[in-house]
Amino acid sequence: MSWLLGAGFGFLRGGPLGAVIGGVTQHVVSKKFQKLVRKSLPGVKNEPVFVTCVIVVMTKIAMIKGTVRPREVETIYRFFVRNLNYREGDFEGINRVIREVYGLNPDLKPVVKQYKQATESKYRSLLLTLAYQVALVEDSLTEGTQKEINELARLLDLSHETHNAIREKLSLDDLVTPYGVLGVPVSATDEEIKKAYRRLASLYHPDRVAHRGGEEVEQAHIRFLQLQDAYREIGLIRRF
């Protein structure tokens, strides 16, 4: 599929990204393919960009553990086979984009931005689900992978509740959210969040626990760093 190769390479090589993506739709996209996308995923307004973004995100998540392995590539294939009627002869286009992503390791932010534009912000939960699927190929979810998936959810503007619902369907434990770390509900006011942070930070501050010594000090320091990260994340979301 020549349109996929064009979408993948032009998309990832930097430059004025908006202009590059704007030119993607000039590639030939068969009526058969357009019909399949519209039937399976109504509302996608830019099929080449949608497909490219899915491949990029799934590859990026797979790369966190190192080399993209055959089973992870098969997981990417599976989405296109089941949803868009891809056949073995179509996989070379996917492989070329995977190799491009592996070489360039593009930032998620512009990729997700283009995905949202291509889908008019539909199918955001789908992309997060696909990220988890490729991450769980080896039945392990590393801390680094979870961190990148959390960033993906943030860029997709998905709430913690939606994120947790996806994890529940995948039989995963509840997501440790920054609100949970601070012990406050999502509905808490900014002032309640700040108050909770100040209280907990004072309890676990290194100066406060230095006299305990040993493992207790280490655990308190880890907890203090977790509190700082959680407060910083909520601050970015709420802009305080």
What's the quaternary structure here?
single chain
User: SSE order in H/E notation?
Assistant: HHHHHHHHHHHHHH
The count of DSSP E runs of length 2 or more, i.e. the number of strands, is 0
Rounded to the nearest angstrom, the radius of gyration is 21 Å
Strand content: under 5%
Number of helices: 14
Give start-end ranges of low-pLDDT stretches. 15-29
Shape: elongated
Largest sheet entry: none
Instruction: Output the structural class.
Output: mainly alpha
How would you state the average pLDDT, rounded?
A: 83
Helix content: over 70%
Determine the N-to-C terminus distance.
Answer: 47 Å
Walk me through what this model shows.
Helix content is 71%, strand content 0%. The chain is mainly alpha-helical and 240 residues long. The termini are far apart.
Summarize the SSE layout with pairings.
Elements: H1 2-12, H2 17-24, H3 31-40, H4 47-63, H5 70-84, H6 91-104, H7 108-119, H8 124-135, H9 143-155, H10 160-169, H11 178-182, H12 190-204, H13 206-209, H14 214-238
Helix pairs in contact: 1-2, 1-4, 1-6, 4-6, 4-7, 4-8, 5-8, 8-9, 8-10, 12-14
Entry summary:
About 5% of the residues have low confidence.
Labels describing this entry:
240 residues, single chain, J_dom_sf, mainly alpha, DnaJ_domain, DjlA_DnaK_co-chaperone, 14 helices, DnaJ-like protein DjlA
